[in-house]
Amino acid sequence: MEILPVSIKMNPILVGFSEAFNLLFSFDEEIWSIIFLSFQVSGIATLISVIFALPLGSYMGLQEFRWKKTISTIINTCMGFPTVVLGLIVFLLLSKSGPLGNLALLYSPVAMIIAQILLTFPIILGTTKAAVESVSSSVKELLLSLGSTRFQLWKSLLLESRKSTISGVIMAFGRAISEVGAVMIVGGNIRWYTRTFTTAIIMQTRMGDFGMAIALGMILLLLTFIINIFLTHLQTEEA
Fold first, then answer.
1. CA-to-CA distance for 88 and 99, rounded, in angstroms?
2. DSSP string spanning 220-235?
3. pLDDT band per the 50, 70, 90 thresholds, residue 212
4. Residue 221 CB partners (closer than 8 Å, separation 6+)
5. Which of 48, 80, 98, 126 sees the fewest Cβ atoms within 10 Å?
6. Alpha-carbon span 128 to 68, nearest angstrom
7. Residue 4's pLDDT is what?
8. Residues 161, 135: contact at Cβ < 8 Å?
């Protein structure tokens, strides 16, 4: 049941606002299914990337080792890797003829999470490494002179560079939640199962239902904005 009458035969943006309101507050089951799946997939992928990329990136920022420059170049390249190509690689790995075909993960939320991990991991890794490296050497020397252990040094440098690090997490999550190419390839846009905001928007646009497409886009922007407010609060909070 619609809360607001959508009898607006004017600007499609106004129609989109009206439909977005109606869809959210009428608790449309399919819309909320899309919302939960989208944030579940992107949230899990970003969280896994944070768990592994944060310590690895900070370690790379702290240490000097052979091939560091080459590895940094590879990481920077992966940060801008074409998502359609990434989706194709995951598709080939998970397809029946691929090395991981026996797992039967293709066209499932797990396949979408895998694709988004590969998308977000290099972003968080690269930004964390750059953030730790950017901390003044005098700060590092001071901490070491005070007798800090390696773990204490690592913790202090992460806190010192948290603004840049959290910016990387925000960037990674934003890219994951707005991803369409890789998600469409490995997820298949299956209704009630792998349909996300971006794939639903493409489908509605192709069907000519611009009001619904705009409504979905506005809901996505609104919810992403709320999450980013929380992350920005963490970023600016005093240690």
1. 14
2. HHHHHHHHHHHHHHHH
3. confident
4. none
5. 80
6. 15
7. 46
8. yes
Under 8 Å between Cβ of 138 and 163: no
Half-sphere exposure of 83 (CA within 13 A, CB side): 21
Residues sharing a CB contact under 8 Å with residue 172, sequence separation 6 or more, in sequence order: 46, 49, 119, 120, 123, 124
Domains recognised in the chain with CATH numbers: 38-196 (1.10.3720.10)
Sign of torsion, CA 80 82 86 92? Answer: negative
Indicate the DSSP class of residue 108: S
**Under 8 Å between Cβ of 126 and 76:** yes
- Please name the amino acid found at residue 12: P
- Apex CA 62: angle with CA 150 and CA 81, to 5°? 135
CA distance 190 to 150: 48
pTM of the full structure? 0.81
User: How many helices, marked H, and strands, marked E, lie in the chain?
Assistant: 11, 0
Which has the higher per-residue pLDDT, 5 or 182? 182
Contact in structure between 231 and 170 (CB atoms under 8 Å): yes
Rg (CA), the chain: 21
Question: Is there a contact between 182 and 83 (Cβ–Cβ < 8 Å)?
Answer: yes
Which residue type is seen at 107? Y
Closest CA to 100 of 41, 46, 110: 110
Token pair for residue 196?
């996300």
